[in-house]
Amino acid sequence: MRAAALPALLLALWLAGCGFRLRGAENLPFETLYVPQATKGIALDLKRHIQSGSGTRVVDDPKQADALLQFTEETRGKEILSLNTAGRVSEYRLIYRVGFRVADAKGGEYLPLNVVTLDRDVTYDDTVALAKETEEELLFRDMQSDMVQQILRRLAAAHRAAVAPD
Questions:
Q1: Which of 18, 48, 82, 162 would give a disulfide with 91, using CB separation of 3.0 to 4.6 Å?
Q2: CA 52 to CA 6: how far, in whole Å?
């Protein structure tokens, strides 16, 4: 029993010594945050992650918030990467782009306008078009999850910019 515990203890000590730690809750630099109302999409996912994974409270009234998150764009696109010898599409690039900024109620900025773009390359075969549509939707959902994590990291690194006196 003791011999089996020794390797586990050594592994734990090694991991602690190398700086490894599980990803925990993001500490955001504001106590309350207004996220625009949404029933689906990036705003809803972001709101859920903030509520469950940080000490920041999401409020429904912008007047009660320390910071206001504003989305300037959210677009999904698809461009052709390559064609086969018959002139049919054989590869697409899926593009997901989100623009956002974070400000306080007094006009100060936590984060200036940020535009994050993610892309994924996907092969295409028109003989299995329905399966490829499903794959495309799954890839966009995965990209949205990645986008939420990137926005959360940027929110955690945000700080209030100095507001010049009038």
A1: 82
A2: 36
